[in-house]
Amino acid sequence: MKSRHLLDSFRFAFEGLVHAFHVDWHLRYIVLCAAVVLMLSVFANSTRVEVLLLFVAATLVVMAELLNRAVEAVVDLASPEIHPTARVAKDVAAAAVLVAIVCALLIVAGVFTQAPTLDALRGTGDRPRPHFLHVLVVGLITVIVAVVLAKLWQGHWNLARGGMISAHSALAFFCFVSVCFLTTDIVIWALAFVPAVLVAQSRVQAGIHSVREVLIGAAVALLAGWLLYGLLPMRGGG
């Protein structure tokens, strides 16, 4: 039945993405590798163009893997039994993923093998410090990936509700850490801390998460913040 509402289209797309995460281990590894590469881009003080190229490379591989999964599902539906043509369809779809991965690896190599990038990773060189928005976006992506993979590892298939880690608490506390990075004003820290606590409390009161799961979410956020902010002399960087 054709969807009549735009929100329904987004919901169906999200359900498709969740299903892909459930059944496709390759997609999980791809997303994990993408998060690691993006984190390295922060430590390498990558430029905006380099970060954009890395985002494009990661998106390209994820899209190829999703399309590969869709082709496999359609082929299995149309040809439940082994058939040479069905095998060709699956092999060609897998080849598309391989081409995307090779392209992404070339982009990653091109970004991280430059002399300024290598100097930045070694802690030397004079590259400008990463922009705050660069670190914020990478941090949010890292937290989301960590939460999703932890839920799947636990065997919790509802990524939007419940699970080992409270995603809402993790994101709220990472935003709190980000605010702490932006300013040294303790009053502003307190104003940012209160909403994070309220978000965590609401998850517990609603019975969606336990206190332990909320605390783990906060710990994940604090760890990500320490890695991205605490290890980098970035205050005031732009």
Tell me what the structure shows.
This protein is an all-alpha fold. It folds into two domains: 7-128, Helix Hairpins (Orthogonal Bundle), CATH 1.10.287.3610; 129-238. The chain is 77% helix and 0% strand. The longest helix is centred in the N-terminal third of the chain and has 31 residues, at 48-78. Residues 234-238 have low confidence and may be disordered.
Please tag this protein with its features.
mainly alpha; 2 domains; 238 residues; Helix Hairpins
Helical segment tally? Answer: 9
| Oligomeric composition of the shown chains | single chain
| Count of extended strands | 0
Largest sheet: none
Order of helices and strands: HHHHHHHHH
Helical proportion, percent range: over 70%
Brief digest:
With 238 residues, this protein is mostly helical. It has helices at 6-23, 25-43, 48-78, 84-112, 115-121, 132-154, 167-182, 186-205, 211-230. Residues 234-238 have low confidence and may be disordered.
Annotate the secondary structure layout.
Blueprint: H1 6-23, H2 25-43, H3 48-78, H4 84-112, H5 115-121, H6 132-154, H7 167-182, H8 186-205, H9 211-230
Helix pairs in contact: 2-3, 2-6, 3-4, 6-7, 6-9, 7-8, 7-9, 8-9
